[in-house]
Amino acid sequence: MRKEVFVRExxxxxxxxxxxxxxxxxxxxxxxxxxxxxxxxxxxxGAEVAAEKTGGDPSVGxxxxxxxTREARGLGVGVALVRAIEEAAHARGLAAVDLHAQTQALxxxxxxxxxxxxxxxxxxxxxHRSMRRSL
Length: 135
Prior knowledge:
By secondary structure, this protein is α+β, with helices and mostly antiparallel strands. The chain has a domain at 2-95: Gcn5-related N-acetyltransferase (GNAT) (Aminopeptidase), CATH 3.40.630. 30% of the residues lie in helices and 36% in strands. It has five helices and six strands; from the N terminus they run ααββαβαβαββ. Strands 1-2-3-4-6-5 form a six-stranded mixed beta sheet, sandwiched between helices. This is Acetyltransferase. GO terms for molecular function: acyltransferase activity, transferring groups other than amino-acyl groups. Pfam families: Acetyltransf_10. It comes from Streptomyces phaeofaciens. Residues 1-135 form the N-acetyltransferase domain.
């Protein structure tokens, strides 16, 4: 699914989409009643992740790789995935969740309680902003 959304639709190079964090991440998957995948996302957390993804704070998790299939967009799948990742972060004792949002998705995350901080940066040629929500 990430390949469909990020690599095919958005042109992110496949070698950038899949990284060493995937193996240790907590992955969530939204599926239709018939088992067809609709969306996915991941949570990174822990001291090793903190040094690179959350400014060195191990109490902050990193939400990422949120992808919803074209057919499922606008149905609440993305919201459900974000909330599931936040619940998983809270269950692991994390105090907040960070993410790097594509600038076109800032409004989506703001509606979910995230606040942007820091400068706009390019990731895989796409403008992004850092965002955080306290749990």
